Amino acid sequence: MRRRPVAGVLPDQMEKSNTKNPHSRLCFLASLSAFFWFLLLYFHFAVLRHQPTAPDPAVPITFQSQQQHQQPRKNLGFPERVSEPKEPTFPFDRALRTADNKSDSCGGRYIFVHDLPSRFNEDMLKHCRSLSLWTNMCKFTTNAGLGPPLENVNGVFSDTGWYATNQFAVDVIFSNRMKQYQCLTRDPSVAAAFFVPFYAGFDIARYLWGYNISMRDAASLDLVNWLMNRPEWKIMNGRDHFLVAGRITWDFRRLTEEESDWGNKLLFLPAAKNMSMLVVESSPWNANDFGIPYPTYFHPAKDDDVFIWQERMRRLERKWLFSFAGAPRPDNLKSIRGQIIEQCRRSKVGKLLECDFGESKCHSPSSIMQMFQGSLFCLQPQGDSYTRRSAFDSMLAGCIPVFFHPGSAYTQYTWHLPKNYTKYSVFIQEDDIRKRNVSIEERLRQIPEEEVRIMREEVISLIPRLVYADPRSKLETLKDAFDVSVQAVIDKVTNLRKDIIEGHTDENFIEENSWKYALLDEGQREVGPHEWDPFFSKPKPGGDSDDLSAEAAKNSWKNEQRNQS
To answer: Where does the record place the Exostosin GT47 domain (predicted)?
Structure first.
């Protein structure tokens, strides 16, 4: 009897099934092995790759080495993608790029003016009687800071453009000129510089006499606190900011916290050291202040006012070889004014306008300008400090200035006057006058007539950049003292920004040699020994020269303010 096959399975199928069993086991083992290796490789690449590798303790971890550890693996078989390093960006990049926009006439010249609270400027004018102990400054703040008009009674002036301008009024004149500046902006990202319309000179003038140092410093501290909280300040920490003070620098450089010490400490505040302060007399040993001209009596409203005046100064007959307007300084043993006055009195070709307190022709703009217009040379010794307003009045009259100290002009007004001082002036060393080694008359007579004519023409050509135009109008083509100053600030900030981008640093900069850097030509960075080193030997802190600077500031304030009354 035949055995019946298993249900559903044919005999030939049973034979095939028995023959396939060994192969199935091999497939199973192969699949299991492949799965094991898959898990091992997954664990290695997907897990272990992201675990931090313990650093070798012998190798210090630097920013560069960390970057190297984080570099992605190369993709084998594919071209590696190389990412170029990004150039660093600066918050003033856009401002620099505006200069390249030829269709923008203001490109690279935009000025952002801070909208200061009125306590820093306009409120002072509302209380103008408190601005001076001796002088009612209210009349001098009229006409946008120019003062009352001068009548042309003696025919000395032009018919228009002449004002009884106070020599300390630059604060308000400059701020009002800035309101007419053609390239103002409210966008700080395009600003070439930032103007701070703080009346620093008027502020300290209120408190120089009879007030403690807390009162003298209050507005300055308030100002820097206000500025440092502004976003515009953070662009360069104030190194692109500037302000103006119509006073000498020593009024803002109090050395101690003694109540008897002079002035305030504005220019010694850390924030103020970053800013540029334009003053009528700067310090030769500090880098954060710059000299700008004293205001004269002439404030032209249009180009023709200047051209007509210049032509008139060319045609004048000058009967005096030299002249001097001033008073002796008997209390100052280093002053040479006494010897100068003595030489003027002895000379038949010298003119002297003696000044003293009370009624004097020295207090009359007409008398002063008339004497300067009739002189070939005008003597400009130091005043109570290095500088004098008289130097600018004389050049306005086409008179060649004679200086006796390089700090009276040559190291002060490098933005406005030629660095080659022999083109427009004569220099006679103080010691030669003090020791009576030189006769001023003989020294000036030795200059050939043609050379005198060339020098006088140079002085007359400088007139536009030495006067402040009427803030209520605009000159068409000429650049006045304001324009020259603003452009110089813009150039200074622009060069600083470029140095930052290019990584340039002035590691060898010595602040005590600031006066030397001002005399360098374009592109020069290094200074060395100079013929004027003996004039500017830096005093030790608290030394005699520091005391004299403070005393000079006091005397200047008293003498000049009384002259205005």
So the answer is: 106-443
